Amino acid sequence: MEGGGQRLVPVVPQGEHLQLLLRRSQEAKNCAYCPYSRFPVGAALLTAGGEIFSGCNVENACYNLGMCAERTAIQKAISEGHTSFRAMAIASDMRDHFIMPCGACRQVMREFGTDWDIYLTKADGTYIVKRVEELLPLSFGPEDLKKV
Prior knowledge:
The chain is an alpha+beta fold. It is 26% helix and 22% strand. The chain contains four helices and six strands; from the N terminus they run E-H-E-E-H-E-H-E-E-H. It has helices at residues 15-29, 69-79, 103-110, 132-135, and strands at residues 6-7, 41-47, 51-56, 85-92, 117-121, 127-131. Strand 4, helix 3 and strand 5 (117-121) form a beta-alpha-beta unit. It is globular, with a radius of gyration of 15 Å.
């Protein structure tokens, strides 16, 4: 298995495999470096090949140089040769609301398609599922560059 990802059997997370994806996002959150916002976020990305890549937010004293958990996970997967994704789980400590990806993360997700699932969680582990297309409707993607 290349890239240090964790191999799963199904490509669409269900049952214990979904629980693993959700757990990996929680574990990634625990690694967040967020001394300024004190808002840890973790993400776990399931590739089409069944591997999971996780990421956390990493802040910087120069605020705009920070990196979100979602983009960290995607960049880790890309750096290991994966460009097709099935799902991502995102975790935070928010209790009353489901975590939502920022606009930049939504656009980076969109780069790799609109038809994959994003599991948005609360601190208690409950979640809702949205497709990338729902998170970024009327989006611009790689295929739009071919319309010129």
